[in-house]
Amino acid sequence: LAGGNQRIWQLAGIVVEGGSGAIMLDADGNEYIDFVAAMCVGALGYGDARHARAIATQAEKVIIGGGTSAPRASLLKRIAELTPTGANLTKTQMYSGGAEAVESAIRLAKSYTEKEEVVGFWGGFHGKTAGVLGLMGSELKHGFGTMAPGLHVVPYADCYRCPFGVTYPSCGVLCAEFARQSIKRQTTNNVAAIIAEPIQGQAGEIPPPKEFLPAIKSIAEEIGALYISDEMITGFGRTGKMFGCEHSGVKPDVMTIGKSLGGGFPVTGVVSTPEITKAQPWSWPGASSSSYGGNPLAAAAADASLEIIVKDDLVGNARRVGGAMMEALQKMIDRYPFVGTVRGAGLMLSLELVSDKKTKKPLPIQARERILLAALRRGLFANPLMSRVRIDPPLVITMEQAMEGVDILDEVFQEIEKTGGWR
Ligand SMILES: Cc1ncc(COP(=O)(O)O)c(C=O)c1O
């Protein structure tokens, strides 16, 4: 294996053999409560027989081809039925990677608006391909040279680490007005799309205050740009609602979907309205297809995944279990000198780890690595490697498992506090 793999797996040093629900099993027979879900991919967790059966049954019939297939027809109908009421997001094109879908959404916006530029946000993450790397609102793009032209990033509403050093709500959501002014000055007034995660994932499970995204959507309308909601992580229940945009009530023009969509199978999509998806050249024959996008196997996996998410009310489970976890995690803010805040919604939560609550300086990496390994030894797989513990378990996690995971974190934090070295 070449370099560039996720560090959490290298440090954990485990070989995943299987599992059941939210419990991951390694090749040595150890079990872990999974708070990672392969970076929010594994909505259904491990070993869902219905999902496995749907994939196996389709694999025995046909797995290739972009022609019509029964599972794809069923899937497209299902997606159209699940998208937010009143948004008319009924047309989907399928892909197999997240960045690929986001790039297609950008091509769609360019086709529809006949404009060129795209605005994203600080902390934003939309993939690592050349067409979207410039929308990465973090230092992860450093060293890759000149980005594709016409891509801009403006500050997101990260209230815990407010880029303006002001406090919500007395700030009057200054960041939204700053975005408006930045777009005026930084762009050539030729913006095809504004793209936002309704709750930022990679940046730390950051839900913006309720006014922010409606204000951003208004800016998009003012400048004649489409508003793309990147629902790769937030789509299909993770936040306790079917889609992340439902928290703010903003109706996107385009959504990008993936991760939970396939329940682990690599399948993604772009969803928009009948009117927008007619735009050319995006809708020309062959202009928006891909070799594997929505092939019968991917479609069968995704169709089964969405059926299970609805049937088992995993959206409700994310809301209930996530709500209880949030309550329990919030108690740690007062209990530990290094827990800065807890944020998120549903089963998309994070716990900021700081060496100083005033300066909010992140906990040193050595301490975060210790947390990872100490949790692992106790049977919890969690990701504390950024400046926070990200908590994104499979949507099937039970209340009991979730609370056991929180208790393990609590024990690990006690050990870290007692033994020191976290400053
Ligand atoms: C919001 C969001 N968009 C896009 C992507 C890119 O997906 P992929 O890694 O499949 O290219 C990710 C990946 O984590 C993501 O979180």
Describe the structure.
This protein is of the alpha/beta class. The longest helix has 22 residues, at 314-335. It starts with 6 loop residues before the first helix and ends with a helix. A seven-stranded mixed sheet has the order 4-10-9-8-7-5-6, sandwiched between helices. The model has no long low-confidence stretch (mean pLDDT 97). The radius of gyration is 21 Å and the shape is globular. Helix content is 36%, strand content 16%. The structure holds pyridoxal-5'-phosphate. Pyridoxal-5'-phosphate (PLP) binds at residues 39, 97-99, 102, 125-127, 197, 201-202, 230, 232-233, 258.
Backbone CA Rg: 21 Å
Helix content: 25-40%
Measure the end-to-end span.
Answer: 34 Å
Strand order of the largest sheet: 4-10-9-8-7-5-6
Count of DSSP H/I helices = 12
Which small-molecule ligands are present, each listed once? Answer: pyridoxal-5'-phosphate
- Series of H and E elements: HEEEHHHEHEHEHEHEEEHHEEHEEH
Largest sheet: 7 strands, mixed
Q: Tell me, what's the shape?
A: globular
- Mean of residue pLDDT? 97
What low-confidence regions span 5 or more consecutive residues with pLDDT below 50? Answer: none
Relative strand content: 15-25%
Number of strands: 14
Structural class: alpha/beta
Summarize the structure.
This protein is an alpha/beta fold and 423 residues long.
What is the element layout, followed by pairings?
Elements (H helix, E strand, L loop, with lengths): L6 H6 L3 E5 L2 E4 L4 E4 L2 H4 L8 H13 L8 H13 L8 E5 L2 H16 L3 E5 L8 H4 L17 E4 L19 H13 L4 E6 L15 H11 L3 E5 L23 E4 L10 E5 L23 H16 L2 H22 L3 E7 L2 E6 L11 H13 L2 E2 L6 E4 L7 H21 L4
Parallel strand pairs: 3-13, 5-6, 5-7, 7-8, 8-9
Antiparallel strand pairs: 1-2, 2-3, 4-10, 9-10, 11-12, 12-14
Helix pairs in contact: 3-9, 4-9, 7-8, 10-12, 11-12
The structure holds pyridoxal-5'-phosphate.
Pyridoxal-5'-phosphate binds next to helix 5.
